[in-house]
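Q: I'm a student working through a structural biology exercise. My instructor gave each of us a protein and asked us to get a predicted structure, then write a short paragraph describing it. Mine is MFS transporter, NNP family, nitrate/nitrite transporter. I'm not confident about reading structure output yet, so if you can add a plain explanation after the tokens, that would really help. Here is the sequence I was given:
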Amino acid sequence: MESFKVKGSPTIGLVMATFGFFIGFAAVSLYGPVAKNLKEILGLSGFLLGLLVAAPNLTGSLLRIPFAAWVDKVGGKIPLATLLVLSVIGMAGLSTLLYLYYPNLEPWMYWLILFFGFLSGCGIATFSVGIAQTAYWFPESKQGFALGIYAGVGNLAPGIFGMILPFALKEIGLTTSYILWFGFLLIGTVMYTLFAKDAPYFQLIKAGIPREEAIKKAKELGQELIPTGSLIESLKNSARHIETWALVALYFTSFGGFLALTGWFIVFWVQSYDMEVRHAGLLMAFGFSLLASVIRIFGGWVSDKIGGELVSIIAFSMVLVGAIVIIIGGNTNFVVSLSGEILMGAGMGIANGAIFKLVPKYVPHATGGAAGWVGGLGAFGGFVVPPILGLFVEAHGVLGYSKGFIVYVILAISAIIISSILWKAYGKEINKPIEE
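A: Happy to help. First, here is the predicted structure for MFS transporter, NNP family, nitrate/nitrite transporter. I'll explain a few features afterward.
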């Protein structure tokens, strides 16, 4: 066993974790671009429409908890590959259904489409798995930047797919578009499985090297974070920290809000301004999703410098202003509404980078478990919010698409308060782990 050589490097670990997250995370945009088509064919209410748009986010959020904690036991490769395979099954089912029946879908097929959305959403859960996998490869002083790159690049997927899919729908049709998406996901899953590598500690353990010796060698290779227990222990350990639950609340607004609006903004532009779905997809991508993804890198970087707590306060203030601006814009002032979308996208992206800088800081001995709670329950906002926005539409008609953003006003104010409390308690401890 002494001759065993660890494979990979922090760079390879980051690249493959980011790649796996990218191909799985595209499912956020699964139904947003075709929501109007399905609404008309199936005769959906505002609530059922919101539920369909949000469907991938249910499994994509809740499965983050056990799968991220599983990383602490076996490393990131097996959990992430498992989620991608489940997503492949969902996309295969959806593609088959559309090939056989679209556009002659029956109302009862809504529930089957919803189910395939749940399965496809398993790929979204790769986020917290990759977070833990990346964190184990890098020293804490570089985690903010590394995790910013991971999440920033991976987060580009919904924007890119939300932008491409409407054009593909027009040129090659809905069924062919989803079949090609299935092919992309299948090939990507195979590539991840072939080339991804776990952090040194996990490779050494799998090679049969005793734990103490594996820890020593892993630290010699630069791995600072070492898991302390099993999946259940990791979840329990991280759950004991009140800071974990504070970050869950913050992430519910920033990332859960991001997931919800990535699908919903396309519907917003189409219904509020009678816009073509292709143009709505472009506005969602460039004005919100891609912006939030790219600027997340900056959020992680600046959090390394001045602390994630202060960055969160600033970011959620941007979200608050953006939501208010959209409410003011209603469905009559395009420039005002677009300005609000851009503000919200930038604020959410920066906050996302800041919050996950704080995860290994607050819970260094159970990072996988903490990433599971924060990434899972936080991302649950992506499932909860769209149906609520749909209720505003049922109550107020077209105006409900803008009035519904009062939900984000409330969430942003709550997040600012929580961030301020954390800043007062820990703001000066920028890179120093919180003691047990």
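A: Here are two points you could use in your paragraph. The chain has a mean pLDDT of 88. Residues 10-426 form a domain with the Growth Hormone; Chain: A; fold (CATH 1.20.1250.20). It's a good idea to check both against the output above yourself.
Q: Great, thank you!
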